[in-house]
Amino acid sequence: MRMDSMTKMWVSLIGIGLMAFSAIIVAFARHKTKGWIRGVLTFVAFIMLMVGALYGLISMF
């Protein structure tokens, strides 16, 4: 299945947004939280980073 250029643009922007939002979550977790909440937020940010990277890879092909 081929994607047109507009679809690729939106997939790429979603990937960039997820990666940026995960960086904000990690920064917030490290500066404002402690304990298990920090771990949960970091884990959620890691998952968002991986999904964002996957979206970025998909948009290249």
TrEMBL record:
Keywords assigned: Membrane, Transmembrane, Transmembrane helix
Xref: InterPro entries: DUF2768
Transmembrane segments annotated in the record for this chain: 9-29, 35-58
Protein name per Swiss-Prot or TrEMBL: DUF2768 domain-containing protein
